[in-house]
Amino acid sequence: MIRFPRLPLFPLLTVLFLLGPLVAGLWGTLLPAFGHFPAGGHHGPSLDPFRALLDWPGLSDASRLSLVTGVVSALLSLSITALILAGWTGTRGFRALERLLSPFLSVPHAAAAFGLAFLIAPSGWIARLFSPWLTGWERPPDLLILNDPWGLSLIAGMVVKEVPFLLLMSIAALGQIDGRRRMALSQSMGYGRIKAWMIAIFPALYARIRLPVLVVLTWAMSVVDVAVILGPSTPPTLSVQIVRWMSDPDIGFRLLAAAAALWQLVLVVAGVGFWFLGEHLIARIARRQVEAGRRGHSDTPLRVVGFALGTTVSLSLLLGFLGLIIWSFAGFWSFPDLLPDQFTLRSWMRHRMGSLDALGETALIAGVSVTIGMILTIGCLETEERYGLRMTQRGMWLIYLPLILPQTAFLPGLQTLLLNLGLGMGRVPVILAHLVFVLPYLRLSLEGPWRAWDTRQATVAKALGATPNQILWRVRLPMLLAPLLTATAVGVAVSVGQYLPTLLAGGGRVETLTTEAVALASGGDRRAIGVFGLMQTAAAMLPFALALALPALVWRNRKGLLNG
C-alpha cells in the first residue's frame, strides 16, 4: 500500500509546482524585456526592446484588438449565461439546454474554433444551406468573415466556448445560495421571473463565480490558438504577435517578444481594472432600478432571446463537431453542395502516421501531468482533512493564479530562461508547463465531492481498527471513484487543449494533436484539419465517457456508490 509519511509536504510541493514556473517565467520575461539576454549576446539593462516595441506600427491595433475582443467576449458570455439562467432555471427547456451544452465543455478550444470556421466561412455550411436558392451564389462569395480586422469571428469563437464554462460554473454555485427560496420571495413581491432572478440571485451568484469570470476575461485577452484560427492577421492580436517573435530564427526578436509580453500583462491588468469599474457602475444602475420599483412583468421576449442564444451556442458546437467529422472523410465537395459527393478514408490514410505519433505524444504528456496532479491534489485534500484545514480566499486566488495570469506573460520567459541556463526544451518542460494549468482544474473538480463525503464512514472504519491510510485507500478513494475519474477526465481535457505551453516549453519539437491542428490553420487543408481536429476532440471526450462508464461497471451492484 502506498503511504503518505510526509503528508504536510504535499501543499508545499503543490505551491512549488504552481508558483515555480510562474515566478521563473516572469523573471525570464523581465530580464530580456530590459535588454538582458546572455544567450543572445545582450547584456542589459536597456530600454531598447521597449523602443523597438513602440516603433512597431501594429502596436496600437494589436493592443486594441486584444483589449476589445477580450472584454466584449467575456461580457457577452456572462450576459448570455445570466439570461439563460434567469429565464429558464428549473424548467424542462433548461435541462435540455444543459444536456446539450455539458458534453461540449470538454471540446478543446482549437477544435471548437475550427468547427465554427467550417460553419461561418464564405464556403461554410451556412452559406451552402442558403445557396443558390436564396443568395444566388454559385461560388463562395468574396466576403471577409474569418480573420476579419474587427475580430468579430474571434469574439464569436470565444463566446461559443466561454458560455458552457460559465453556465456549468454557475449551476455548481447555485446550489450554495438557496435560489428557490430567494426566487419565491421575490416573485411573491410581484417581480417578473427575470427581474426577480437578477435582483435576488445574480448578486450572490456572481460573488461565487467572480474568479471563473476573471479567468474567462484574461484568457480571452491573451488567447493564441483561437486567435490564430479566427482572428485577424495584419496585424494579429498582441498574443499571436508575441508567439511569432518568439518563433523567429533571429534570436534578437526574443527581446522584443519579452517587452511585448510585459505590455500584454499591463493590458490584462487594465482590462481587469475596467471590469471592476464596470461592476461598480452596473451595481449602481441596478440599485436605482430596484429603487424605481418596476416589477418587470413583460419578460417573455428576454426569455425567448436567452433560449435562442443558448440554442445557437449549442448548435454551433454540435454542427461544428459534425463539420469536423464530415471534412475528415470528405472526397470531392464543390460549392454549394450541402454534402460531399463521396466519403473516403483517403485523408485518414494520408495523415495516419503523423496523427498517431501526435496522439501518442498527447496521451503521454496528459497521462503524466494528470497523474502527478492527482497525487498532489489528493495529498493536499487529505492533509487538510487530517489537520482540520480549509481553503481560504487567499488560497483560492493562489489556485486560480495560473489561470488568471496571461500565458504570454510568463511562458515566453520560461523558454528564454531555459535557454539562458543552457537547458534543453522538450517533453519534460512541456509536462511541467501543463501541470501548472492541470492542477487548478483538478483541485476545483475534486474539492466539492471530497468535502461532501460522509465522514461517518471513516468513523466506522476507525472503530474497526483501520489506520488513516487504510481509510483513505480502502474506503474513501473507492467510494469517490466517480468524482476521481471525472476530475481525471477534466485534467486530460485541459492538457489535450494546451497549445502555447506545448509550443514554447517544447521549443517546437514536441508535436501534439493541438499544435499540429493549429499549424494546419495557415495551410487551409480542411480535410487534414478535420482529421486532427476530430482526433483532438476524441482525445478530450473519451476520458469523460470512461468516467461515466467505469463506475457503472465497477459499482453495478452498489447503486449508492455510482455518484461518489
From TrEMBL:
Cellular-component GO terms for this entry: plasma membrane
ABC transmembrane type-1 domain span: 59-274, 359-554
Keywords, in A-Z order: Cell inner membrane, Cell membrane, Membrane, Transmembrane, Transmembrane helix, Transport
Alphabetical list of Pfam families matching this protein: BPD_transp_1
Location within or outside the cell: Cell inner membrane; Cell membrane
GO BP: any one term: transmembrane transport
Segments traversing the membrane: 65-89, 110-130, 150-174, 211-231, 251-278, 304-330, 363-383, 395-415, 421-442, 480-500, 529-555
Bilayer topology: Multi-pass membrane protein
Keyword match Transport: yes
Main location: membrane
Top-level taxon: Bacteria
Family, similarity comment: Belongs to the binding-protein-dependent transport system permease family.
Protein name in UniProt: Inner membrane ABC transporter permease protein YnjC
The organism of origin for this protein: Aliiroseovarius pelagivivens
